Structure formats: C-alpha cells, structure tokens
C-alpha cells in the first residue's frame, strides 16, 4: 500500500524477506535507520517508538541520529526506553529532547564509573496536573514548551505586537518546592500582572525542578508588584518563596585553571579567546595566598557577550594553559533578609558618566545629610551616609535625577555576607568542581587540585543557574551585593573600601 515519506506507518510488504525486516513488522523508516548506520537492535527499538506515535522519523535530525549511532548499544537501548517513558505532550523539539536524555544518561554513567553518587531524589517527580495545564493553556492561548532543562510557558503572549519586555520586567523566584510545576505557579503570578513567559528550570538528573524559575512580566510595575506581594510568600506549609527582580547574567564560572595564574594573566588569556571581557574575579587559596583556588569568575559587558563566551569556551575543544576547563553561569546566592537591609546606610548609584567625580557625588548627596565617603568605580559608585534615614531620603529623591547628562539609578547597596558562610560556599564549589572533572573524564587536570593526607582536596564545580537574580551572583558572597534594580555592577570592589 502507498504511504507518505517518513510518517511511521506500518509496511505491509509481503515481498520483503523476514530477515530484512527483522523480528516483527517494521515501519518503512526502519531501513533508513539501518542505512544510516544504526545497530539493528537500536534501529528496531527506535522503530517500535515510531509505531507508538510518540515520535516520527521526520522529527529526528542528524544530530540525534549521529549521537545514537555513537552510543554503546546497551546505552542507546536504555536511552530510548527512558525517552519512551517520558511525557512528550508539550515537547516541541523531540530531537533536542532525545539529545538531552542522552546527555543526562552519559553524565550519570560517567559519575557512576568515577564512584560519584548521583544526586539523591528527595521528592518524587509526580509531574504536573495535566488537566490544570490544559485549562490554563486554553484560557490564555499561551504555549508550553518542555525540554530536559526547562519548562517554558508563553513568550510571547498571543497577539503581542510590541517589543519584548526590557530590563526590570523579569523576577527570579527561588525556594520553589521541588515537586511543584507551572500549573501551581502561573495562577499565583498572574495575580501580579500580565505574564510574558515563565521558565521553570528542571534537573534532568532527578526529574524534579531545580528550585527556581524566572517569570517575565509585560511591565516593570507587574514585576515589582510580584516582589512586594510574593516575596516570602508561604506557598506550602513551611515553604516560603524568595522573589527578586532579576537582571541579565554577565558572569561566568570557569573551573580547573592553574592555581599559579594571577588575575592579569587570566584576564589576558581569556580576553584573547572571548570578546567583551571586562573583569576577572579570583579567590586566594586558604593555604597559599599567592595562589588562586583553581577557579575564577569572568564578567562581561553584556549578557549576549557572556552567552557567546560560554558557548565558545564550553565546547570542550578549547584548552586554556593545556587544561580542560569547566564553564557555566555563576550561580545565585541568597539575598540578605529584611532585618539586615533595614540597617544599610550605603547607597548604590549606577549609570554614571565619566564626568561624574567622587567630589560631585558627595556634593549632590550631602544635601540630605553627612556623607562619610564616596567610592566611584567605573560607571557606578557607593555613597556611605552616617545616618540611614538620610540615605533613604536621598535615595527616594535622587533616583532617576539627571547628573552630568545621565539619569542616576539609586538604591540601597547590599552588605557583605558572613565570612564563614563565604568560605563554606567556596569549599562546596571546590568539591563540586572535582566531581564534575571526574564525571567528565575520570582524569584530573592542571594544578588546580592540591593534595592532602587523605587524598585530593577538590576544587569547584560550575553552578547550574542559567540566569541570575539581582545581587545574587556567585563569587561575591563576601562583598556588598547590589540592589534589586538595574544590571549588576562589580560590588566586589566595594569590599576594599568598607
């Protein structure tokens, strides 16, 4: 009988030899898989998936087929079984999704071979309420696109004829219960304003969410309303959300660099490899202050520059000082609580021109009370008041005011975190980087790993967040972190002048 090309329909060809078809009936796409070079068992398994209707041959691209071809047969069969068991209802790119399943399987396998336990599943991934999701999608006309790394609702909304929302329209939502999905989050955030999109970040290793999401609203007012209404909101008994207006992530984590390299050397080397690099942040080893900890943070001029750098450095093909580096986004850190922020007497002032001097700033702000000192760094500054009430008054009055041809953005600076907590974060990052290096190849590189009487002291791992909430940047936990509005500046410099 006649059939459309690659549609997965069953062949009824009695003239075909049974040995050519394999055991049982095959679809007309089975010979294509064999011709492509897939093992017969893998091709048969994939052909069985075609028969279920969950996947058509035309939905697979060469990248997915090439990856399957390179997989060991047993591994490929396990990957396809996992793919078949997955809920693909909202998956728009099934080829990319299959590649994601293969990547996760490979990571778990390498971790197992290196003796590293996989992340424990603390909650069962029960999945969202599909009836509720269906109702939400029908009511709003939005789409839901699922990958192994995130679940994205909307973006843009139906009939949207405007430019995408700008800075200040997105919020970071942290401390989400791991078994929660958009069917419960969307109704909550809709109360604050019109949603552009909601991205719930997923952990493919466990099948649960990562505990955070990003919600972009169609206006800044809605975003700030979400902060006011939902920050510290108890979404489940004993589970309170943490909401902050987020900013474009400008900072990358780079692990497994030689400990002997200094800040200028790192800046020069990565400046040759990537465009838009503005700053390098390193931390000294607790055992030898002349050495770094085996990792650094790279800060770029824009999110786009950071994204391009991450893509280039993260291919695995670029070695830096003969080292296989680890590259990812810097991860979020917890915000200081309201009690801490209520004592802050330092203002963060950004969007300053070169013409604005520390003297001009002091003169401008001292109209509201005694200013102890001012420190300007590039296009932003920190203004230290003697009295908090005067600082708050100046913030309210001067935010948005023109100074030397540019509108100032003024808000409270975030104080440095506890030094002990910072050290714990750095040591945890070191342990995680060692795990990543072992799971990647089982081979340790460079001199980023120091020896101890009990073995190797591990250096760091890349964080897993794809964007950063304002003031929640990794690597700045001992420095004043920046305010909720506007792009993140280099608050680390402020710590030198406290």
TrEMBL record:
The entry's keywords: Cytoplasm, Repeat, RNA-binding
InterPro entries, A to Z: hnRNP_Q_AcD, HnRNP_R/Q_splicing_fac, Nucleotide-bd_a/b_plait_sf, RBD_domain_sf, RRM_dom
Domain of life of the native organism: Eukaryota
Record localization: Cytoplasm
Residues in RRM domain copies: 169-248, 250-332, 345-415
Composition-biased stretches (Basic and acidic residues): 13-28
Pfam family, one: RRM_1
One Gene Ontology CC term in the entry: cytoplasm
Residue ranges, annotated region (Disordered): 1-28
CDD domains: NURR_Syncrip-like, RRM1_hnRNPR_like, RRM2_hnRNPR_like, RRM3_hnRNPR_like
Molecular function as annotated in GO: RNA binding
Protein name per UniProt: RRM domain-containing protein
Originating organism: Chironomus riparius
Upper classification of the organism: Eukaryota, Metazoa, Ecdysozoa, Arthropoda, Hexapoda
């Amino acid at each position: 009988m006649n059939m459309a090309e690659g549609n997965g329909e069953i062949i009824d060809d009695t003239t075909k030899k049974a040995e050519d078809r394999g055991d049982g009936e095959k679809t007309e796409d089975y010979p294509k898989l064999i011709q492509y070079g897939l093992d017969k068992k893998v091709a048969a398994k994939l052909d069985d998936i075609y028969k279920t209707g969950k996947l058509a041959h035309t939905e697979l691209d060469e990248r997915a087929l090439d990856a399957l071809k390179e997989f060991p047969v047993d591994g490929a069969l396990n990957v396809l079984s996992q793919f078949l068991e997955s809920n693909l209802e909202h998956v728009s790119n099934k080829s990319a999704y299959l590649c994601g399943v293969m990547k996760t399987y490979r990571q778990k396998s390498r971790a197992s071979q290196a003796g590293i336990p996989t992340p424990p599943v603390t909650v069962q991934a029960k999945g969202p309420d599909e009836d509720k999701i269906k109702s939400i999608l029908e009511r709003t006309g939005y789409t839901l696109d699922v990958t192994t790394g995130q679940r994205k609702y909307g973006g843009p909304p139906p009939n949207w004829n405007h430019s995408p929302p700008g800075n200040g329209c997105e919020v970071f939502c942290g401390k989400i219960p791991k078994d929660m999905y958009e069917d419960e989050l969307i109704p909550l955030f809709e109360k604050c304003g019109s949603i552009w999109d909601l991205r719930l970040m997923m952990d493919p290793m466990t099948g649960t969410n990562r505990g955070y999401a990003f919600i972009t609203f169609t206006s800044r007012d809605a975003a700030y309303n979400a902060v006011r209404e939902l920050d510290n909101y108890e979404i489940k008994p004993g589970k309170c959300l943490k909401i902050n207006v987020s900013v474009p992530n400008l900072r990358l984590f780079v692990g497994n660099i030689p400990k002997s390299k200094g800040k200028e050397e790192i800046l020069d080397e990565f400046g040759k490899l990537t465009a838009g690099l503005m700053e390098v942040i390193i931390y000294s080893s607790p055992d030898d202050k002349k050495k770094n900890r085996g990792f650094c943070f790279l800060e770029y001029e824009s999110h786009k520059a950071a994204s391009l750098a991450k893509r280039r450095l993260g291919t695995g093909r670029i070695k830096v000082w003969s080292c296989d580096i680890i590259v990812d986004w810097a991860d979020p850190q917890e915000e200081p609580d309201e009690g801490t922020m209520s004592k802050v007497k330092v203002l963060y002032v950004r969007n300053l021109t070169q013409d604005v001097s520390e003297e001009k700033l002091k003169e401008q702000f001292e109209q509201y009370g005694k200013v102890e000192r001012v420190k300007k760094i590039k296009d932003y500054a920190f203004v230290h008041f003697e009295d908090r009430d005067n600082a708050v008054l100046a913030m309210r009055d001067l935010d948005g005011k023109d100074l030397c041809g540019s509108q100032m953005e003024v808000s409270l600076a975030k104080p440095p975190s506890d030094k002990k907590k910072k050290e714990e974060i750095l040591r945890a990052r070191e342990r995680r980087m060692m795990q990543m290096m072992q799971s990647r190849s089982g081979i340790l590189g460079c001199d980023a790993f120091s020896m101890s009487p009990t073995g190797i002291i591990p250096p760091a791992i890349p964080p897993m967040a794809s964007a950063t909430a304002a003031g929640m940047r990794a690597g700045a936990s001992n420095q004043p972190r920046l305010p909720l509005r506007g792009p993140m500046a280099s608050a680390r410099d402020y710590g030198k002048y406290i």
